[in-house]
Amino acid sequence: MKSAILLSALIPSAVSATLYLAGDSTMAKGASGSSTTGWGEYVTPYTSLTVSNKAIGGRSARSYTREGRFDAIAEVVQSGDWVIIEFGHNDGGSLTPTDNGRTDCSGTGSETCSTVYNGVAETVLTFPAYIENATKMFKAKGANVIISSQTPNNPWETGTFSYSPSRFVGYAQVAAEAAGVPYVDHGAYVADQFKTLGQTAVDAYFPSDHTHTSAAGASVVAKAFFKAVVCGDVALKSALSTTSFPGSCL
After folding, report:
1. Which residues form the signal peptide (predicted)?
2. Which of 12, 52, 139, 198 has the fewest CB atoms found within 10 Å of its own CB?
């Protein structure tokens, strides 16, 4: 009996892999007292993985990189973990005449732009380049990466359904293809669900503006992400507690 106890003490217990989420406010936990929150807070019910939501409001692929947030995930990520990267809402704009610290350089490849932000000279990369660089770091640690397109603004805002993906949706796909990792068109799957649910329901999901969802809306957005994962046959589906989510495969 003693030898059995000793042996069990020497064998490490199984540790669940972790699912890291890197994104902006549409993914992040809402502020205390806020009527809105991000879809990353509604991932846990659908996966056996430990969820670590590292999304931060107001960030772009550029600012998330400059602040060392991708690096911070790379420092702790383990082989077999998962990282979902989803940006786009804050990546547009212009570097001139005033750089907001979030705008990326135009283009889809190795183009660079020079700027000064907060008194510091900075070489700005393209949106795909920031995402590809982060992906390479995570893959080097043995992690699995999914690059996801941004969520849509309320497509019923005008009273008539209209979903027009921003250029960053296409850029996310470019980054995924270049980095050799799965691409999930989260935006398209959310839009499809919002169209089915109708204007009254969807308008209620956006209590403060056309971008940020209520808790109920965030739950719909989370389930749409997993629908895209299942339909795309992404390996993450093996870590889901269910593969039955609303909607059709696109």
Report:
1. 1-17
2. 12
Q: Which two tokens stand for residue 87?
A: 């940006």
* CA separation for the pair 11, 93 (Å, rounded): 54
The catalytic position among 16, 94, 209, 210 is 209
Convert the pLDDT of each residue in 126-182 to its tens digit. 999 999 999 999 999 999 999 999 999 999 999 999 999 999 999 999 999 999 999
Tokens of 34: 């806020």
In three-state secondary structure terms, 78 is coil
Rounded Cα gap, residues 214 and 208, in angstroms:
9
Name residue, tokens 């786009």. 88
Q: Which amino acid is at 221?
A: V
Q: Which two tokens stand for residue 42?
A: 């509604």
209 as an active site residue: the answer is: yes
Count CA within 13 A, CB hemisphere, residue 209. Answer: 9
State the Cα–Cα distance between residues 94 and 240, nearest whole angstrom: 40
